[in-house]
Amino acid sequence: MNERQLITVVTPVYGCRNCLNALVDGVRDAFEGSDFEWELVLVDDRASDNPWSLIVQLAKDDSRIRGIRLTKNHGQHLAIWAGFEVSRGDWIAVIDCDLQDDPRVIPELHKKAIAEEVDGVVVDRGEWLDTGFRRLASKWFYGLMETLSGLNLKNNIGNFGLYSRRLVNLLLRFRDKEVFLPLMISLTGLPLSTQRLDRKHRHSGKSTYNIIRLTRMALAIMIRFSDRPLKFSVVLGSLFSFVSAIFSVFLVLAWATGAFTVPGWTSLILSLWFLIGLTLAVLGIHGIYIGRIFAEVQDRPRIFIESTTEVSPPNKT
User: Fold this and answer.
1) Which residue, 292, 12, 315, is CA-closest to 176?
2) Cα(226)–Cα(149) distance, integer angstroms
């Protein structure tokens, strides 16, 4: 290697202020004695434990540490995008701040990427040292997305990985208002590899992803990246039309033979309520897509940055 390559480590910070010192130590240890330069970008996603003061102090103590503070909570994936925007590295690593993934393996990921001539190495999380509920929720989340969106996602793949500058530059060309890193990496079409690494226990804190948040994210991703719900509504409507046509033939035959004497008021009302509910549900699906289109054409900035540890911070992305 003729010159020392720079690796940027991007970390969204939410609910793990107590992890930051250990995270910084882990990143330092990862590159100690290596042929790499490094920088650590800590993105404060406005957690309630107020990590910004600590991030500022860490940046003062080590110029290789940079901090970004968002104006409000934007969510994990948009926080990662904010880190991508300011990253300077030849390679960019993404790692959560809770230290379930070990930053010391980043040089190993780089070695694998170079040996296999790929633009990214994503980490298979292997065996989780987490609660059974958390593992089940994650598996359910990915299964729901695959079923409803038709997208091929591996439920054991998270955000942790190492990505080339070329891949990150392609990611930054996506202007979607909602982003999801594992999926959008695959959408670039660049060659990728996978490294299996078992996850550890959290250094501190707990996951903020509950069933409600996972369901909301799954539905948002489904709407954002797939038109399968629209196709499903067409198939469902066609199916009911076909069943109604067949049922109408039987009703005509029953009337012609005199078997149909007393009209069924209850069945009629129930059928009306059911079909009206179905119609409103289908219209609702189309309305959600129209709402997403409306949000996109407004072209508002996805992220607002309040401040950084540098002199001239960007204000939006």
Assistant:
1) 292
2) 5
Does the pTM surpass 0.70? The reply is yes
Edge-to-edge order in the sheet of strand 120-124: 192-196, 120-124, 157-164, 91-94, 5-13, 36-44, 65-70, 305-308
In sequence order, the β-bridge partners of residue 84 are none
State the average pLDDT over residues 40-69: 93
Using one digit for the tens of pLDDT, what is the confidence trace for 257-283? Answer: 766 555 665 566 556 767 776 777 777
- The answer to whether 27 and 8 are in contact (CB under 8 A) is no
Model confidence over 82-132: pLDDT tens digits?
Answer: 999 999 999 999 999 888 888 999 999 999 999 999 999 999 876 655 556
Give pairs for 137-142: CB < 8 Å, separation 24+.
Answer: 137/209, 137/210, 137/211, 137/214, 138/209, 138/214, 140/214, 141/214, 141/215, 141/217, 141/218
CA-nearest of 159, 134, 164, 200 to 75 is 159
Helix/strand/coil (H, E, C) string of the chain? CCCCEEEEEEEEECCCHHHHHHHHHHHHHHHCCCCEEEEEEEEECCCCCCCHHHHHHHHHHCCCEEEEEECCCCCHHHHHHHHHHHCCCCEEEECCCCCCCCHHHHHHHHHHHHHHCCCEEEEECCCCCCCHHHHHHHHHHHHHHHHHHCCCCCCCEEEEEEEEHHHHHHHCCCCCCCCCHHHHHHHCCCCEEEEECCCCCCCCCCCCCCHHHHHHHHHHHHHHHCCHHHHHHHHHHHHHHHHHHHHHHHHHHHHHCCCCCCCCHHHHHHHHHHHHHHHHHHHHHHHHHHHHHHHHHHCCCCCEEEEECCCCCCCEC
As a whole number, the mean pLDDT across the chain is: 80
